[in-house]
From TrEMBL:
Pfam families: LytTR (PF04397). The keyword Transmembrane helix applies. The lineage of its organism: Bacteria, Pseudomonadati, Bacteroidota, Cytophagia, Cytophagales. This is LytTR family transcriptional regulator. It comes from Rufibacter hautae. Residues 178-286 form the HTH LytTR-type domain.
């Protein structure tokens, strides 16, 4: 069980629009459930503004979701890195949301005059929220994990799909000329010798072969700028921080976070962004 909780798991994309949408959707579901089904004794509670007050808990739930899945992550970015994210962390983070929700619901209930603002009430409301979300939180993570494992099964680069052979290119057409932003620092290399290019801040590291040996060359340039200088068809973007030569990929592994590209001569793995996973599946076949 512990080994399962340590398995890699994708960290959801952090965008304001997506967070707002999910928060409003979750709040609507909570408000609808409270008004229609009236669980946890609310059926026997009578108040002239009962439905509006119950709907207000949906608003509180939406605020709680937004805080946990956007605001708190913005404030604590070092805690949320996909390289270290796992199934267990995803489940724990989802469950911690109920503590925030219980506290905010108690504050709201106190302001509405329907419950006291006490520690015991906060614990009770947190328990109610926990019981409502425990099974869905764990079950959805497990189902999504199994789905992602199937989606990102290892691929075989050695069994590439048949494609028409390209016309023979001259040595000049095979040459890549990568020019840094200052217009002076230049790297010339044969396109087949390029493995991948990694971007970091305002610099790019070019991983390539020189006389058969792995060489790293640093250029001050954005990745987009270097990408615009490359016309070789086998070289493509696979991540916001990586350009890769798909012809040089040795193996393609996969887990719930997506594909990883392996290259001969270096232990560094190149991640494939989920938006580019289709490109990898089109290039290689399932193992």
């Amino acid at each position: 069980m512990l080994s399962f909780l340590r398995q890699p798991y994708p960290l959801s994309e952090l965008t304001l629009s997506k967070s707002v949408f999910h928060s409003l959707l979750f709040g609507f579901i909570i408000a609808f459930s409270l008004i229609v089904f009236q669980p946890f004794g609310s059926y026997n509670w009578h108040h002239p503004s009962k439905n509006p007050i119950l709907a207000g808990y949906g608003v509180v739930a939406a605020v709680s979701v937004f805080l946990n899945f956007y605001a708190f992550r913005k404030m604590l970015p070092r805690l949320f890195t996909e390289a270290n994210w796992s199934v267990g962390k995803e489940i724990i983070w989802n469950l911690l949301h109920f503590g925030t929700g219980g506290f905010l619901c108690t504050v709201y209930g106190s302001l509405m005059g329907v419950m006291p603002f006490t520690l015991s009430q906060i614990l009770y409301m947190s328990m109610v929220a926990f019981l409502m979300g425990l099974v869905p939180a764990v079950l959805l993570v497990m189902i999504n994990y199994v789905y992602l494992l199937q989606k990102y099964r290892p691929l075989e680069p050695t069994e590439k799909k048949e494609t028409p052979a390209p016309a023979a290119l001259s040595t000049q057409e095979e040459e890549l000329v990568l020019v840094a932003e200052n217009g002076k620092d230049t790297l010339r290399l044969s396109a087949p010798n390029l493995l991948f290019i990694e971007a970091s801040d305002n610099y790019c590291t070019v991983f390539h072969l020189d006389s058969g040996k792995l060489t790293k060359t640093l250029l001050r340039s954005s990745l987009s700028r270097l990408e615009s200088q490359i016309t070789w068809p086998g070289i493509s973007r696979c991540h916001r921080s990586y350009l890769v030569n798909l012809e040089r990929v040795q193996t393609v592994s996969g887990n719930a976070q997506g594909y990883k590209l392996h290259f001969d001569g270096t232990e560094q793995l190149v991640p494939v962004a989920r938006s580019y996973s289709g490109l990898v599946r089109e290039t290689f076949v399932a193992a």
